[in-house]
Sequence to fold (158 residues):
Amino acid sequence: MTDDNIIEKFKDIGRTEIPEEEKFTSDSAQLDWQQFENVARKALETELDTVLNGGKININGKVKDFDLLNIDEKIVGDIKHYKMTAGGNNPSAKFSVLNEYSWLMQKLEQYQKQKWRKIFVIGEDLTVVKKYISTFDAWLDDIEIYFCDADGKLSKMR
Fold:
């Protein structure tokens, strides 16, 4: 397959109409993580009036991939589609992932010796966001946290 064929195939995908039964509702739990990531990115891009392509960035020799990245405007962040456990317990593995990204974003500033705007966008379960903030607020420095629903409505939580 040539590059032109690949490009044309992606153009066809972009023109494809989504059947009504596959369109999502305002309940972010109805979205898969990829759909949610697209909705959340567009909502944040509108909110900040900038483009936030995902990408890789070098943090002191370690390359890390972020869902939200604008190198020119020094914005970095990640999008997570998380819910509480079925038993209502803290989703400790998910909190660990958020803590890892928090640490990496803070290290990015430290090693580049530049201030970055650091952001999480979390969807599906507002309880996760509230629990995470109440548990780890002291560690988060100036990281902004937004909750996003499936319609792209953002609520700044921190």
Remarks:
- Confidence is low (pLDDT under 50) at residues 9-26.
- The radius of gyration is 17 Å.
- The chain has one domain: 3-156.
